[in-house]
């Protein structure tokens, strides 16, 4: 199980408690910047930290500056999660790619995460994913678990 901190979720200013998106699901791992309405995700902070502190990181200041805040065009750059899990804060699972690539990869992740057994997972992986570097997905357990019926371990 991967532990997450409540600071990564939206905090209700009236109660100082993490908001939930539904009765059983935690809020997304983001903060809303007061007065701006802009969203700041945990992985944004992680990418910036890596760019500033790790000379061997895939992230650099110029690369992060090229990431689009709006992501309107398919060619706009964005931070992608190779593992397909919104709560992931493993820097090795993050990269900078185009919005189009990210959108396609999200489709692959949904297919992989909805597989009901290993055979179905492999079929989705082999037939549906058309990326040169095949998509993959992991699943977490506990309070932040994925909404899938089968998990790759």
Q: Could you explain the architecture of this structure?
A:
It is a single chain. With 153 residues, the protein is of the alpha+beta class. 29% of the residues lie in helices and 13% in strands. It has helices spanning 42-53, 61-66, 99-113, 118-128; strands spanning 11-12, 17-18, 30-32, 39-41, 77-81, 94-98. The strands form three sheets. The protein has a two-stranded antiparallel sheet with strand order 1-2. A two-stranded antiparallel sheet has the order 3-4. It is globular, with a radius of gyration of 16 Å. The termini are close together. 18% of the residues are buried. Residues 1-13, 15-25 and 148-153 have low confidence and may be disordered.
Describe, in short, the structure shown.
This protein is α+β, with helices and mostly antiparallel strands.
In angstroms, what is the radius of gyration?
Answer: 16 Å
Helix content: 25-40%
What is the H/E string?
EEEEHHEEHH
Overall number of strands: 6
Structural class computed from helices and strand pairing:
alpha+beta
Spans of at least 5 consecutive residues with low confidence: 1-13, 15-25, 148-153
Envelope shape: globular
Mean pLDDT: 75
**Which band does the percent of strand residues land in?**
5-15%
Number of helices in the DSSP assignment? 4
Largest sheet: 2 strands, antiparallel
User: What is the spatial order of strands in the main beta sheet?
Assistant: 1-2
* Gap from first CA to last CA: 11 Å
